[in-house]
Amino acid sequence: MAITETQIQPPKLPPADAQLQAGAKIPVLRIEPLRGRASLKLWELWEYRELLYFLLWRDIKVRYKQTVIGAAWAVLQPLMTMIVFTVIFSNFAKMPSDGLPYPIFAYTALLPWNLFANALNRCSGSMVSEAHLITKVYFPRLVVPISAVLGGLVDFAIALVILLGLMLYYGIFPTWAIVTLPGFLLLAIMTALGVGLWLSALNVQYRDVRYVVPFITQFWLFVTPIAYPSSLLHEPWRTLYGLNPMVGVVEGFRWAILGTKTAPGPIIAVSSLAALVVLGSGALYFRRREKTFADVV
Fold this sequence. Notes:
The protein is an all-alpha fold. It has helices at 15-21, 43-47, 49-64, 73-92, 102-124, 126-129, 131-134, 143-150, 152-170, 181-205, 209-222, 237-240, 245-258, 266-289, 293-296. The longest helix has 25 residues, at 181-205. The chain is globular and about 60 Å long.
């Protein structure tokens, strides 16, 4: 039987092959190991913003799922600590409180401190807890610790409601300085993320880091002016005290919310610089170690 010309049909190419034959360019994602100095590649965080959102939302739901009192845990922690500090440091030790009622003096400082401490605890173990994701798909690893830190903002907002109630009870009303509060909140997040990046990268290689984190948090609590005011120190030691970034955060919160007479002053500049150094060095170290996470974790 003779084969006519109409019986011979060219093979149907898949869409990708047809595009290649037509000279069309197909977007390609090339994953290469870092060489030389690590680049932060911050633009990737924007490209994977949806992943950041879903990780953040998942952490919040898991935290309050199947709990007896739910979000009240965010209030009980600073509230109980405030009571203990009031009994020990105010009633027994007669610690000054910059002319403010000691309970609200301590509780205001505990708000950013709990945000920092809880974020540091979650962030330090975030890379190990997300090992099932890291070893299977590619995404900027910075998304994981960032979502761990930002998840604490929900607890912070809930505990802030109690602070407003205490302010009404003691007849304290915020001044114009309240507009600076977001800046001090950002400083607390920067500090937690910077230290958390160091610890999370180290925890991938050395799993005993998780035992060190509670000790660091406990030590850091007592070198931060939470139970006592920084006004106990005189210059220049008070300014040098700001090398602890949480000093600027705590003193800034008290000044912004309660209107304390002792404005933070140079402490804010020193604490902000220290937080930037910790965050920048932590991000660079994290990115440099990132290429080994999937193999080690």
